[in-house]
Fold these 2 entries.
Entry 1:
Amino acid sequence: MILTSRSLCLPSPVIVQELFFVARDASIIPDISMDPVLTTFLSLDSSAALQHQYAFLQRSMSREQQSAFRLSLTGELGGSKRITYGGVGVVALALSMLFDQVAQQVRAQGSTEGGNSTQRYQVKRIFGISSSSRIGWIIHSYLCLIPGIANNLEKMAETTELYDNWLKLELIDHYERMTTKKRMSSVSMQQWLAGAAVHLHMRIHQVRMKSVPLGSAESLRWSYKSGLVGWFSTTQPIYAETFRRLQHQAAENPESGQPVP
């Protein structure tokens, strides 16, 4: 049916989805997806993903490069070929970054192509590093330290506690800026989500090392869950009103020959 005058029109799920994508792409609604690197290496499958990444990088190298890759990794890990809790959480994420970094360095030897710029771009994309927030910088700085200290549980516990506090304060400040000062955007929301995810896994790792109480990680998880619920309860009416306006405009100005459900 073609609408020629104003009338009540209830949108189908397909139209609602299309409106959502249009609003998201126009930055009316923040994109709250996380980078696949974070969702992969902060998951239950992190150990398998790390092994797959290592094997994939090895297959893409010559024998000489493979030897240099293994030698460089051993050096970065303080001469050890094993790392405590190497396959899980923040340690797995740190090792994934290290694998990519060393692989790019090995491939760049004797090459005119600069691997450092590619790596900086990837790090900026994954953690949302920008001048508007220190969240990404704090995460990246912490992860870069892990390979050299992970086997020293006392040092690892001290460092993780320090960065835990820094990240917690920055996340609180960032959340306040988004919610009370109305500085909401896809970039700011993704920065907060990435920070919250890494912060939670930092706390989980402290539980593994027995440096914090067992219930500390669960308490933090509920805190971030409440933060998300609060954010959605605050912003949902705004988005609902946006959808109503988009639908109203579509009903008033239908395209020629385009049916409106």
Note: DSSP finds ten helices and no strands in the chain.
Entry 2:
Amino acid sequence: MVDLLCCTAQNLVAELDLREATGRERYRAWGVL
């Protein structure tokens, strides 16, 4: 159970980081356009 929760937390953080990265790319694209 603990390992599962730990992995879930890591996946959640990784997903948030990925969303933030894609968000930055979107802002950059809008800046270019």
Note: The chain has one domain: 1-33.
